[in-house]
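Pilot study result, target chain (151 residues):
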Amino acid sequence: MRRALALGALVAAAWAATEAAEEATTYRKHIKPLFEAKCAMCHGSDSAPELGDFKEAKEKWMADGKGMRMDTYSHLVAYAAWPDTGALMRRLDDGKNTKDGKPGNMNKYLGKTDAEIAKNLAVFKAWVGNWTLKRWKEITKEELDGIRVAY
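Predicted structure:
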């Protein structure tokens, strides 16, 4: 009887671990399709510049409706964790994490309705983990360790 209970507990634990792993928000499954639908038009590889090129001619790129390139996992991680810590979060944030309550300049592009924006923001927040608006010089190691950004 104890063996059956132990086996049952082991199977339940394995099932729960599998369920948790399947529910994890990942770049490939959740972020990439969302990015392609909502962000790639201005931040995709076809026309968006690398960050250095964008900074050198920011007005030109913005006049063309383009932002810096963010269409790969590596690009997005750079804007979430390092070297441009928190940049992704500052731009997508809904304002609930700011003193002035203003949303980030890209928040409105996450959807056509407030509900869609909130839903898509929740996906990004789940992917990032520690949703921080802090920059590299402000963030602690513990806070940085909380940024998950699973591939």
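One observation from the pilot: The chain has a mean pLDDT of 89. A full batch analysis is planned for the follow-on phase.
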